[in-house]
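step=encode ok
step=design start
structure_in=
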């Protein structure tokens, strides 16, 4: 391991130094991204916080890699194939790069689009006033509204909330301009989660239960405070408050990017299946991404209430989950036999896991095979000498320390990438699950791996 770097001003020479060190000793270099990027003091920068999402990427990481000319220059195209809510895309736009985002989760794609698309702020403000007037009219008249199909709706919401959310949904549906509609759908999605009985501390919906904690316990107090908030039921007021906050955030983003004229797109699709009509081969200079971890986050389940309210799931959450890398649901028929990846070291650990837990072995196997497909796609999409930077953590699977980053390096190198640098950062403050099942333990370190499509070496 190497010395600790703190408070750097020139990322170029610092990174070149690290890359030289790595070339010499092939050891991961320890850094602390929060300290390396003192430029970021308040995380609620620009439009980063327009909507919550599990395991968002630390902003400092794309900030650092996009504010150096080693991996890309102004005007180049950056791709995030697992863009989530668009942390990389936003930093790329601010750093005057073109950005392409891909995510299989329709809610993530909606948030990412809204985060980076430039809209006329005046139009958003006018729409807020219009919605306020219409909602008041709506309250006083007997207008019809439609309640979407949400499984177990009365388990998750009280009746008054269902009515109010349905009315807001109806008003948003009547907005013609698709970008303005997206903006309000993002705000609506915040309300769908906030006014549900799902525990705000847990990323997937789990019904809040104050009785679980003894009298006087801080979590009991937090739970009863949340339940009171729902009971007071100021759904519409909260919706307007969030809309205004997000307008301010977008205004800040637009002010900083006013002179940039980059191409920014987001595709809601499976990266493994991405068509070359959407992203041309040899067209991207830098891929910068935080892929899903093996069975660490359930993105589709975490978004399920919003997906149903917004009707973004084609009435089939399971089919969305099937396309998600890192998923956990498989039938016993699929996992009763041992499956090999063809990589000796990986198969050895997979077999140990298989002996303890067949399902976990299959989840991990599928994850690695699907990541291999992603590396293959990425290799084709990247320009010659382009870079692929990946942020990933290890985890414990069936009691075994699973060195995901090492296995992914092995797979990526087989695909043709060369490994230029490995960094380690701590992620203690990231929004990973607090309560985890017995077979997958807490992930405590984050690895940043820099690959190059170095065609000369192949
Ligand atoms: C770690 S999160 C990315 C978070 C993102 N960096 C942010 O800051 O919001 C990983 C993302 O990969 C997405 N994902 C999983 N499987 C995918 C696939 N096959 N194609 C595209 N996206 C996928 C998930 O929906 C999730 O949003």
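sequence_out=
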């Amino acid at each position: 391991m190497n010395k600790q770097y703190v408070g750097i001003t020139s990322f170029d020479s610092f990174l070149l130094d690290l890359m030289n060190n790595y070339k010499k000793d092939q050891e991961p270099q320890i850094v602390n991204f929060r300290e390396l990027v003192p430029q970021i003091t308040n995380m609620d920068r620009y439009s980063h916080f327009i909507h919550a999402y599990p395991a968002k990427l630390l902003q400092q990481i794309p900030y650092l890699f996009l504010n150096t000319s080693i991996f890309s220059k102004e005007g180049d195209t950056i791709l995030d194939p697992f863009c989530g809510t668009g942390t990389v895309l936003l930093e790329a736009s601010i750093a005057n790069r073109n950005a392409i985002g891909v995510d299989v989760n329709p809610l993530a794609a909606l948030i990412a689009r809204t985060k980076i698309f430039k809209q006329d702020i005046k139009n958003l403000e006018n729409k807020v006033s219009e919605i306020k007037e219409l909602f008041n009219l709506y309250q006083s008249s007997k207008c019809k509204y439609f309640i979407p199909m949400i499984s177990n709706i009365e388990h998750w919401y009280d009746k008054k909330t269902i009515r109010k959310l349905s009315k807001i949904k109806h008003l948003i549906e009547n907005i013609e301009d698709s970008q303005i509609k997206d903006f309000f759908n993002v705000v609506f999605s915040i309300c769908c989660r906030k006014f549900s009985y799902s525990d705000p501390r847990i990323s997937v919906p789990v019904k809040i239960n104050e009785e679980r904690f003894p009298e006087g316990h801080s979590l009991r107090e937090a739970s009863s405070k949340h339940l009171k908030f729902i009971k007071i039921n100021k759904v519409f007021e909260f919706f307007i408050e969030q809309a205004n906050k997000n307008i301010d955030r977008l205004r800040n983003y637009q002010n900083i990017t006013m002179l940039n004229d980059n191409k920014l797109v987001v595709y809601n699709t499976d990266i493994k299946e991405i068509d070359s009509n959407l992203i041309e081969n040899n067209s991207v200079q830098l891929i910068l991404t935080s892929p899903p971890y093996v069975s660490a986050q359930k993105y589709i389940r975490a978004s399920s209430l919003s997906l149903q309210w917004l009707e973004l799931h084609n009435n089939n959450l399971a089919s969305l989950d099937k396309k998600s890398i890192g998923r956990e649901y498989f039938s016993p028929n699929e996992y009763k036999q041992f499956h090999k990846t063809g990589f000796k070291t990986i198969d050895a650990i997979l077999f140990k896991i298989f002996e303890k837990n067949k399902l976990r072995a299959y989840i991990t196997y599928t994850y690695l095979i699907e990541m291999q497909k992603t590396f293959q796609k990425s290799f084709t999409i990247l320009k010659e000498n382009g870079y692929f930077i990946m942020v990933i953590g290890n985890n414990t699977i069936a009691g075994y320390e699973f060195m995901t980053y090492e296995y992914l390096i092995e797979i990526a190198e087989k695909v043709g990438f060369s490994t230029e640098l490995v960094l380690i950062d701590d992620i203690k403050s990231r929004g990973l699950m607090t309560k985890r099942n017995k077979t997958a333990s807490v992930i405590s370190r984050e690895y940043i791996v820099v690959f190059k499509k170095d065609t000369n070496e192949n």
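step=design ok
step=annotate ok -> The pocket of S-adenosylmethionine is lined by residues 53, 55-57, 82, 84-85, 87, 102-105, 108, 270-272, 290, 292, 299, 323-325 (CB under 6 Å).
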